[in-house]
Each structure stands twice: as structure tokens, then as C-alpha cells.
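== Sequence, C-alpha cells ==
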Amino acid sequence: MLQLFQFPLCAHGRKVRLVLGEKGVPHELVREYPWERRDEFLDMSPAGETPVLVDPARGHVLTGAQVICEFVEETTEKMGMLQGGPVQRAEIRRLADWFDRKFFADVTAPLLEERMLKRLVTRASPDTVRLRDAMRAANGHLDYMDYLLDHRRWLGGPSLSLADFSAAAQLSVVDYLGALDWRGHEQSKNWYAVMKSRPCFRPLLGERMEGLAPPAHYDKVDF
């Protein structure tokens, strides 16, 4: 069985989990905290980053959420996530990269450091200015999502795609950390409610990070 090395609030790992779940690919979750810098993990992921997908039967080791998701897309027929012609697929990849890279850098990464790592690992006080900046950035990203959803059925175009799962994975972590303000973002809120209602989302909503509880609305589809 495939093994996915990640931790509960790994946004990139959540993206892979959603894709594997949507496609019905059996896999085992292996808890890995990248900040521990285990030698055995660094042998698999020289960058020291999660997620990592391992196929013990074939000896394959894949690192990086987008790389893993495209591998799964190419090797699993169910539920295509890069549909359409070259231009459509390019737009899906552009948005997947937007959420994996820009949203993560602007919003998810600073929130994880201030609200998770400082609390659970370094025992330092959070930087309130950085927290406010990240939440302000989240609002700007929601504005962009509202714009996209005003013109499209899904983020990447007419059909559910990897762009939607990339965005939902990031938002799910930010929501767990209690840093999303949906006021004035009905388009994005309704889209996220639909994403949360998918069966592949249920394991994420039921999982908890030790020592860090989510807000009461976190696992509710109607929030």
C-alpha cells in the first residue's frame, strides 16, 4: 500500500490526501513532523519537506504535492483533475501553483509558524503583527476567489479540478487555525461548503493536531 508521510496541518499533504481520496486510491498515513529533521526522512526528502509518497512494493519515492498529484493523475483513471485542452490545463496548473506557492507563503505558512510551531514546538509568543498581515492577505485571496467564481462554475473552469483541491487544502488549514473571515465572501464560502461536503474531505475534518484544537465550526459543512 502507498504510504504518505505528512502531519495533520500539512497543507500540501492535505492536497495529496484529497486527491487520493477523491480517486479512491488506498494509502496509509505516516505521521512525520518535518521540523524534527529525522535522518531517515531526510534520506527520502532532501529538502526536509512533506508530503512524501512512498510505494514500498516498487521502491518509488515521490516528493512535492504537485508532483505527487500529477503522478496519481497519470496512473489513475478515476476522476480526472487536469481536464480540457492545453490552455485549460495550463490554467488549472496556474491556479494550483497560486495556492500551493503564493497563498501558502502569504497566509498559511505565517499562520502555521505563529499559531502552531510557536505554541507546540518553540514555546515562543506569537507575532501579532504578522498574524494580522496574514489574515489581511487571506481576505485578499478570498476576493480573488470570489472574482474567479463570479465567472466560472469552479475555480479552474467549468469542472472540478486540481485547482479546487489545491485551494481547499490551504483553506482547510487556515480555517483550522481560526483565521478565516467569510463575511462578504459568499461565493467563496458556498464553494468551500461544497468542497467540505465531499467524502474525501471527511478524514481531514475529523483529524486533530495534538495540543491545538480547531474552532467549533471547523468540521461543519453548514458554517
User: Anything to note?
Assistant: The chain has a mean pLDDT of 97. The helical segments are 11-23, 39-44, 65-75, 86-120, 128-151, 162-176, 186-196, 202-206.
